[in-house]
Specification:
The protein is mainly alpha-helical. The protein is built from 42 helices and two strands. It starts with 7 loop residues before the first helix and ends with a helix.
């Protein structure tokens, strides 16, 4: 009765009956799935104008997708695309939305299908669904986003789509009935916060990562029952009652009602008192981490789970943990406080207290525990961060009389200023920079480049780049064997183990190691670009050796976004050695093939901005039109065909024209025909021709080349 040859009412009754039948469980779903074509016919009914029919069709898909063995079949049948179109409708009932998004929720359990769901069309619709009044729709959308966040390859698109502010808002909303959605939002944000850059975005939305230390750890908390509340800065509140409450009730009530408008206290202090009072009360009655009490008793202290709390509660909880007797818990709380508080302003205060000098002296020592070396280097790398605004860190006067602030480190403005055009008095202790420029300290950093883990190599390279900013002559670095350190980082062992058992048997661990190596290589390549400004360094370095190493890295499997500084270093090396700037130069050709083209394809795939997509395809078309050898092969091998076909349907007029030109060049190679057809080019080209769009002659030429 679902068949297209049946009456509309028959089909509607059939889909409703089948949906109800499928609610019986796997046995009934298996019976439905014995009939081939049922998924395709069900998908067809998602386009029905009848709300009950749409709901039943989506409900049946939800039931079928709850069975593991059918998920891939549903996705391959085009369910994700059909649901995307359905959710794009302006007027859709909450029931239909719920069933549709719950189908995506089931499909997102499969990691292979997350890439199909995390696309530019569907992500904004899922995020928008978080604003729905219907709780079930919110929960379904939150569940999909929670699952997507489990795969790191989705993080960039999710963040670019604006998921962090939306999830943070849900987590900070104190409304009954949102318990499930809050849990989903918290889990998704915690996954995103595993990336240090996205963690900053989460913190900026008013959330603090707080360690889960187990309910048992809070039993050591001993509140002062008879102490009268005071402000965070130590100022005492006037005590009006004759005596303290026996169990601290009056103190608790005062703390919870400190926001009385008659009190002349600023908002920050009010929140600090309320947060502290609430957390101490919860600890006193044993209500913190109650839901995890059984689990925490069975787990070891090595558990490193986190939760996210709003600033008021999060900071108060961290301060409370510092008062416990569990050293491991105190250490983790201190790390969370560092993550939440180390910003430009805090760094200035720390510098002013003269902390750089002892940290430098600590790192100079050769015989220190590795943990102490790592912590000292971490703090110093944050303080001496070349990427931060240099004016706010060092200078209190304008550059050359201009009121315009400096850019970030490495920008043309900063580079010009640090080469002698800066005016103004350094705010930091001059003796600290003397210690940083000490050759013994720099030699220690270079030793870390040669012998430490990629994580420490990255931080050491970052500090050395900072040295190039405060000593533009580079004399302090050139005086030490910097080349040996660069050489060690550029020859990461993990890049040579592509065929090892670790790469095949432990792919996740291998991918993490490659990512860490990529970060270290990127930071060191950035350092190299600064060193190449020194004529003395260029004269002494083995440029051919480093060119060879960087070319190998460019072709390696480190993440694409870590190759930008590698490419920049190669181009600079080539130009300084007198190479041509066009594609005849083999280095420029390799940079284009292995960095520029993949980056532009990634921009077409992942960017939510139509302008950015247009810019990427226009640049790709320019590269091909200039006749770069193997450029079309690079586009095809890096997955460029599918986004190009998508652009001829959804892009601007200029993007459509450029995409058609590229696809035409790709079609000259018969090996690309199957991929172009599989991407859906034929129906897209026919639509352009039939609608008489300006590009219809180009579309017709391409259609004639492709096999019928």
């Amino acid at each position: 009765m679902l068949g297209l040859d049946h009456d509309r009412l028959d089909r509607e009754q059939a889909i409703v009956a089948l949906w109800k039948y499928s609610l019986g469980g796997k046995k009934y779903i298996d019976a439905i799935m014995q009939f081939h074509g049922c998924i395709t016919l069900t998908l067809n009914l998602l386009q029905s104008e009848s709300r009950s029919t749409c709901e039943a069709a989506a409900g049946l898909l939800r039931s079928i997708s709850s069975i593991n063995s059918y998920r891939e079949l549903i996705a391959d049948s085009g369910a994700i695309e059909e649901i995307t179109g359905l959710l794009s409708r302006p007027s859709l009932t909450p029931d239909v939305k719920e069933q549709s998004i719950c189908t995506l929720w089931n499909l997102s359990v499969d990691e292979k299908l997350r890439e199909k769901i995390a696309n530019n069309d569907l992500l904004p619709l899922l995020i928008k669904s978080l604003d729905e009044e219907d709780v079930k729709v919110k929960e379904a959308a939150g569940g999909v986003l929670e699952n997507l966040a489990l795969s790191r390859f989705t993080h960039n698109m999710m963040v670019e789509a604006g998921v962090i502010p939306k999830l943070a808002k849900i987590l900070k909303t104190d409304v009954e009935g949102f318990k499930v959605t809050k849990k989903e939002a918290r889990n998704a944000l915690l996954e995103l916060a595993k990336d240090e850059y996205y963690r900053i975005l989460v913190i900026e939305e008013g959330l603090v990562p707080v360690p889960m230390i187990g309910a048992a750890a809070y039993q050591s908390f001993r509140p002062d029952l008879h102490s009268w509340p005071s402000l965070p800065d130590g100022i005492e509140i006037e005590q009006t009652s004759k005596g303290p409450s026996r169990f601290g009730a009056s103190e608790l009530l005062l703390g919870l009602n400190i926001d009385d408008k008659s009190l002349n206290i600023d908002e920050a202090k009010m929140k600090a008192i309320v947060g502290r009072t609430q957390q101490q009360f919860l600890a006193r009655i044993g209500a913190i981490e109650m839901e995890n009490r059984k689990k925490s008793q069975s787990e070891s202290s090595a558990d490193h789970r986190l939760t996210l709390l709003p600033w008021m509660d999060g900071v108060a909880r961290l301060v409370l943990i510092l008062k416990l007797e569990d050293e491991a818990a105190i250490s983790r709380a201190a790390e969370s406080i560092a993550d939440a508080s180390i910003n430009n302003g805090v760094c200035q205060i720390i510098e002013a207290e003269g902390v750089v000098d002892p940290l430098v002296n600590t790192l100079k020592q050769s015989q220190i525990p590795e943990s102490l070396m790592e912590k000292s280097l971490n703090i110093l790398a944050r303080i001496l961060d070349p990427s931060k605004e240099m004016k706010s860190k060092f200078y209190n006067a304008p550059v050359n009389g201009s009121k315009k602030g400096l850019g970030s480190a490495g920008s043309p403005e900063v580079s010009a200023g640090l080469n002698g055009n800066m005016v103004g008095k350094p705010l930091s202790n001059a003796n600290s920079w003397k210690d940083v420029l000490d050759t013994a300290f720099i030699a220690r950093l270079i030793m870390m480049l040669k012998t430490s883990s990629p994580s420490l190599q990255r931080k050491a390279a970052s500090i050395l780049e900072f040295v190039t900013l405060i000593d533009p002559s580079l004399g302090s670095i050139i005086a030490v064997d910097i080349e040996s350190g660069l050489d060690a980082v550029f020859q990461q062992k993990v890049l040579k183990d592509t065929d090892s058992e670790a790469a095949s048997q432990q792919p996740e661990k291998y991918a993490l190691e490659v990512e860490e190596a990529g970060l270290a290589i990127s930071a060191t390549s950035r350092l190299l670009t600064k060193l190449l400004d020194s004529q003395q360094f260029r004269q002494n370095m083995n440029s051919s050796h480093f060119t060879k190493l960087l070319r190998e890295i460019l072709k390696s499997n480190i993440p694409l976004h870590r190759k930008d500084w590698v490419a920049a270093s190669l181009v600079k090396l080539s130009s300084l050695s007198g190479g041509n700037s066009d594609f005849e130069n083999p280095i420029n050709m390799e940079v284009t093939l292995y960095e520029t083209i993949p980056r532009l394809i990634e921009q077409m795939k992942s960017s939510l901005s139509l302008e950015a997509q247009e810019a990427a395809v226009m640049e790709l078309n320019r590269i091909i039109s200039e006749g770069l050898v193997d450029s079309t092969r690079a586009i095809a091998s890096k997955g460029g065909i599918f986004p190009l076909v998508k652009l001829i349907e959804e892009g601007s007029e200029r993007a459509v024209e450029a995409s058609l030109a590229i696809l035409y060049n790709l079609s000259m190679d018969i090996e690309n025909h199957s991929a172009i057809i599989a991407a859906g080019a034929v129906p897209a080209l026919r639509r352009i021709i039939l609608s008489q769009r300006p590009q219809w002659p180009q579309a017709l030429h391409l259609l004639r080349i492709l096999p019928n």
